[in-house]
Write a structure and sequence with these properties.
Layout (H helix, E strand, L loop, with lengths): L10 H19 L4 E9 L2 E3 L3 E9 L3 E7 L1 H12 L8 H23 L4 E3 L3 E4 L5 E3 L5 E8 L2 E8 L1
Antiparallel strand pairs: 1-8, 2-7, 3-4, 3-5, 3-6, 4-9, 8-9
Length: 159
């Protein structure tokens, strides 16, 4: 039993819920096909491509969910979701899009796991090659690698 008499959520069920969330969010919101191509344990929680975003989950479920990818994928997804041509997107649109994806991945994971007493933090996002975001965590991190059209999306989870 966890704190307050609640049964602790198994980490593997969170990972499964996250995988479903990524496929559902991108399939429904961006109307694009998403395929999990690889999963691996990594030594840290590092967002090190041209775009990244992260949310923290707290309460009955404690951890972090992040995404990182090349700018081309962000442009494609934000264009599809927002209905604007890529050449009309501004950096602010891309930042908002990355933040919203992190928020959606966190929220849908929470829903898929079925833990009502979970808060999802406001998202953090960045755009640009000059930024690398890394968080210290005492928990293992998993990196899920998804194929999204011709792009690759990396989703990290630490619970």
């Amino acid at each position: 039993m966890g704190m307050g008499g609640r049964v602790a959520v198994q980490v593997e069920s969170v990972h499964e819920a996250l995988q479903v969330a990524v496929v559902d969010v991108l399939g429904r919101m961006a109307m694009t096909e998403v395929v999990l191509i690889h999963r691996e344990r990594v030594s840290g929680f590092r967002l090190d491509f041209e775009a990244g975003g992260m949310v923290r989950l707290s309460g009955a479920l404690n951890g972090m969910i992040g995404l990182t990818c090349h700018l081309g994928l962000v442009e494609e997804l934000v264009s599809r979701i927002g209905g604007l041509p890529i050449d009309q997107l501004e950096n602010e649109d891309l930042m908002d899009g990355v933040a919203e994806l992190a928020n959606l991945f966190g929220g849908w994971t929470k829903t898929n796991v079925g833990q009502g007493d979970v808060q999802v933090s406001p998202p953090m996002a960045f755009i640009g090659k000059e930024v690398i975001a890394e968080w210290k965590t005492d928990r293992p991190a998993e990196r899920f690698i998804f194929q999204v059209n011709e792009h690759v999306l990396y989703v990290l989870a630490s619970f």
